[in-house]
Every structure is written in structure tokens, then in C-alpha cells.
Design brief:
45% helix, five-stranded parallel beta sheet, Helicase, Ruva Protein, domain 3, single chain, Rossmann fold, 4 domains
Length: 448
């Protein structure tokens, strides 16, 4: 971090202010305290803070009122709202007003410290030049150095130091499990077990047994006691893929593990304890599932402590040449990739993302008759989708259309939110750094 971060803590309870201030001061931060929103506004006039942490319920001017007042004066610094248990509606309203994050009481200091550190760095990154791609990979096992992957790597490296849950969002085939493994490998738990469970592939009853284990005789075929994944991952990390596919009965038990770190085997009554770092992933919209009643709201806010959004391959076409080289090396071939082939690979929209790209490369290797990949060996859907006229080697026309569409999407979101970068990033489903990079790329700036 450049310089000593300045934090404003706003809470009407002096004991809470002092506790949070001591935690941040121990991290080398300069902390100012305010007992209500009105005092906080006065402090914000005199000092530019790197982040503001505010309680929701306060006399004179509450947290929402403070956030509104700061927003009226321009985009506020990263703002973290502290809400009471069960105040989900207030938290949602705070996020809609531009809060960068929220925390639900009671919370762990490690979670609080991480969220403040992340808010500071995201706020400073928003005003900094976009990161320059380097020759190094963003994360171990994750091929590419696009700004989107650099942002993912930044969040993962900081999140890995703590024990808070991580939620990885993104389309199928974007590399969510690779990110989960990176969280584990970069954490103090790297010498312990990394256990993966793919929830969508298991029936509800089987999933519970897989997660929590079962006692002998718990069901037909249970001939002996079996440990579940929460037991085998004790001390390490548990990766729960396809979180959105978990039935509500299992969601209740998962919530209990997150809250109390206790569970029971299927068919058993003994309470067991576990110390597991939970990393979840899904390609579904959990917020919509919460609204529809298909996913528990309390569980959503428990797993959604640190969120990593994996960019689809179509948004990082610049990484495709390196991915192609990686997959060719993986297959042990020196097959060349002519420019017309690479142009079509970079122009395609890749609904199956990196996984689809790997399969296409394997197909071209299998069909090759010489020392170079051929356009005619690409799948028919790719040749149709790119719509390049015969003899045209580069996808300038198509890429230009895609860039115009992307620029318009950014402009619409920014206009809708009054050029609030935090809210626009949430609408677009990208991070602040990635949005800032795109704004500079397309020359978008707030009208005078």
C-alpha cells in the first residue's frame, strides 16, 4: 500500500469503535473515530479517507443517511456497512446506494481486517493506471495475464491469507477449480488436505453422506461407518463446486457447519467439530435464487464473504495465444498456428470458455495432416459464428462490433448509476479495477 491508510470508523458504541480501531491500528493504519453519521460527515470534509466503516443504526444520522450524504457530494471512498444479524434488506439497500461491502454482526476480526484491506486496495486501484500484463501467469495453473486475471489474482492472494469463505462465480469452463486450488496453495493450510466435492453430480442423499459421512446402518448399503469430506478436509480446505445445485435440506446443515463448525454424520447423533476453509463455486445467479426462494438468504451471506468473479474467455481474447501454446505443449506437439486460425480463435465467443478451447485444440491436432493447424479443421459452429469472408485473416470487423457493444454496455451502466464506479461494476458483474481499465480503454469519463 502507498502511504499509511486512513480509516474512518463510525459507531455510536465506544467499545465497538475502540475494538475495531485497535485491530486496524495493529495493521499499521491511521484510524479516526466518529460517534454518528453527522460527526462522520464533518471528519470526511477535513480528511480524505481510504475507507469508511459504519454501523447501520445510529442516532442523528444513521449509516444509510451517511452513505447518501457522501454520495451526493461525489463518489465516496470504499464504504463498509455493519448491520445487525438478519438485516439483509438494509444491507441490500446499502449496496444499491454504493457501499462496497457489508458485514453482519457478529463477525470475526480476521474477516473485518480482510474486508478493510481489500476495500483500501480496490479504492486505490480504481484511481491508478491499469495494470500492465506481464510475461508471468496471474496465478499458478491459471494461464494468462489479462487485466481481468490480474484482478482475480490480487483478490485470491489477499484472501488466501485469511480463513474466511471464498465464493467463486463464473460460467462453466472458466477455471473456477483452478482458482480454488490456488486459494489453498497460497494459504497457511497448503500442507493440509484440499478436498473437492462436485455437488451437481450427486443425488441429495448421497451428497449429505459425501459431505458429512454416515454411521453403519444409516441406510441400505451402509455396511460400515464412513467419514465425510468435512472430516477428511479438517485443517485444510474444502472446495464445494456447483453450490447452486445443493437442495435446501442440505443447505441448512451446511449453514450450521459455517456458523458453529459442528455437524453430525448421517444416521448419527454425535456432534463432530471441523476446522475447514470453505471455498465454493457456482455458475448460477445466487441472488436471483435467493429472490425465488431456491437458495437460503442466510447461507448466501455466509458464503459470500470474499467473491471472485472469473471472466469468460470472450472477455480476455488476448490470453488465447498463450492458452493455445499451453494446450499444444500439454499434448506434446509442435503444431504451428497460422494467423487465419488464430484470428478465428480470438473472434469466437467461446460459450464453453477455456474448456471448450482445449477441446478445439485437441480436435485440430487429431485432424491435422501437416505441421500446422488448418481453418477447415475448426468445428463448424466456429466457422459459422465468426462469419469471416474468404481470404480475410483478421477479425477486425467482428471485434469492432463486439467492442462497440461492450462500450455501450459500460456507458449504459455508468449513466444509470450516475457514474458511480462501485455500483456500475456490480451491475456489470466485474470488479472495480477491471471496470476502471475498460473505462480508460474506451475513453469513458464522467461528463463535466
Amino acid at each position: 500500500m502507498a502511504g499509511k491508510p486512513r480509516i474512518l470508523i463510525v459507531d455510536d458504541k465506544a467499545s465497538m469503535r475502540d475494538m475495531l480501531a485497535m485491530a486496524l491500528a495493529a495493521k499499521g493504519m491511521e484510524v479516526t473515530q466518529a460517534e454518528n453519521g453527522a460527526k462522520a460527515l464533518e471528519a470526511a470534509k477535513a480528511t480524505r479517507f481510504d475507507a469508511i466503516v459504519s454501523d447501520l443504526k445510529m442516532p442523528r444520522l444513521d449509516g444509510l443517511g451517511l452513505l447518501r450524504a457522501l454520495s451526493e457530494k461525489g463518489e465516496p471512498p470504499p464504504f463498509i456497512m455493519i448491520t445487525a444479524h438478519g438485516s439483509v434488506k438494509d444491507a441490500v439497500e446499502a449496496m444499491s446506494l454504493g457501499a462496497s461491502d457489508f458485514m453482519e454482526k457478529p463477525f470475526e476480526l480476521a474477516e473485518f481486517e480482510f474486508k478493510v484491506e481489500r476495500a483500501i486496495e480496490e479504492g486505490r486501484a480504481a484511481g491508478a493506471p491499469p495494470p500492465k500484463p506481464s510475461g508471468e501467469e496471474a496465478l499458478p495453473g491459471l494461464i494468462g495475464s489479462s487485466p481481468q486475471l490480474i484482478e482475480v489474482a490480487d483478490i485470491v492472494k489477499r484472501a488466501a491469507r485469511s480463513t474466511v469463505p471464498v465464493l467463486i462465480l463464473g460460467e462453466s469452463g472458466t477455471g473456477k477449480e483452478l482458482v480454488a486450488r490456488a486459494v489453498h496453495e497460497l494459504s497457511p493450510r497448503k500442507d493440509k488436505a484440499f478436498v473437492a466435492v462436485h455437488a451437481g453430480a450427486l443425488a441429495p442423499g448421497v451428497l449429505e453422506s459425501e459431505l458429512f459421512g454416515h454411521e453403519k446402518g444409516a441406510f441400505t448399503g451402509a455396511d460400515s461407518q464412513r467419514k465425510g469430506r468435512f472430516e477428511t478436509a479438517d485443517g485444510g480446505s474444502l472446495f464445494l463446486d456447483e453450490l447452486g445445485e445443493i437442495p435446501q435440506t442440505t443447505q441448512v446443515k451446511l449453514l450450521r457447519v459455517l456458523q458453529d463448525k459442528t455437524f453430525e454424520r448421517v444416521g448419527g447423533s454425535q456432534q463432530l467439530r471441523t476446522d475447514v476453509r470453505l471455498v465454493c463455486a457456482t455458475n448460477r445467479n445466487l441472488r436471483e435464487m435467493v429472490k425465488d426462494g431456491d437458495f437460503r438468504e442466510d447461507l448466501f451471506y455466509r458464503v459470500n464473504v470474499v467473491t471472485v468473479t472469473m471472466p469468460p474467455l470472450r472477455e480476455r481474447a488476448g490470453d488465447i495465444p498463450r492458452l493455445v501454446a499451453h494446450f499444444l505443449a500439454k499434448e506434446g506437439t509442435s503444431l504451428q498456428v497460422p494467423e487465419p486460425v488464430m484470428a478465428r480463435l480470438q473472434a469466437y465467443h467461446w460459450p464453453g470458455n477455456v474448456r471448450e478451447l482445449e477441446n478445439v485444440i485437441r480436435r485440430c491436432i487429431a485432424l491435422s495432416t501437416g505441421d500446422a493447424m488448418r481453418v477447415e479443421d475448426l468445428p463448424p459452429e466456429m466457422l459459422e459464428a465468426t462469419r469471416l469472408p474468404p481470404g480475410e485473416d483478421a477479425p477486425q470487423g467482428l471485434v469492432g462490433d463486439l467492442e462497440r457493444i461492450e462500450r455501450n454496455s459500460l456507458l449504459n451502466a455508468l449513466t444509470e448509476t450516475g457514474w458511480n464506479v462501485s455500483r456500475s461494476a456490480r451491475i456489470l458483474g466485474v470488479g472495480r479495477t477491471a471496470l476502471q481499465y475498460k473505462m480508460k480503454k474506451y475513453g469513458l469519463s464522467k461528463p463535466a
